[in-house]
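Need tokens for this chain, all 232 residues.
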Amino acid sequence: MAKSSEPPDLPTGKLAQLRMAYKVTVEHDKQLPLVLLGAFAIDFAVIFVLGLLIGHVIFGSIFAVMTGLLAAMFAFGTRVQKAAYTRIEGQVGAAASVLQQMKRGGWRVTPGVAVSRQQDVLHRAVGRPGIVLVGEGSARGVAALLDAERKRMNRFVQDAPVVEVVVGDAEGQVPLRKLTKHMMKLERKLRPGQVTEINDRLRAVGDLMSNLPMPKGPMPKGARLPKGPKPR
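Here are the structure tokens for all 232 residues:
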């Protein structure tokens, strides 16, 4: 019998997705099994002892198992997120991946509005705080991209507030794992209608990278970016 050429089905059930997430995460987080066991055990012990003290051993045991599982799931979610950041940190386009995953705030994200030949990258997010320029790469290279983009935008959107964010672990920079929280805490200065208007104006002007393909996710370290126009 001839083998089917169709690719195997990806896991779609909740349990299958959890197993896959666990398998991927434990490759980067060897302490994951101990963390999950510890979270379950501590919560179980606390609730079980409380059940003993109030004289409801059976109810306390059942409730301890349920809350222990919830504690383990919470710890699992936290470790999965941390491992995800660890996998992409330091790669070109990592900040764009984080920005595009923001579910709240009504952000309009445009990755790769400017890229240098040294693989410094500038992304743009338009939201209630205004225009947020997010750079990643060397401090000097990102500063040059920010300066060029700021001058370019001043010719078209002078009335829009501009916020600059540099991703990194140095002083004054925002770590990748804290980028989403940092964006959500920015002061809101625009109404939703203004956000749409500013984003439409920027799209009409066109990006510096409009003719240069930009990957949707992070690129492996050492990957070469195609040559593009220099920042104006």
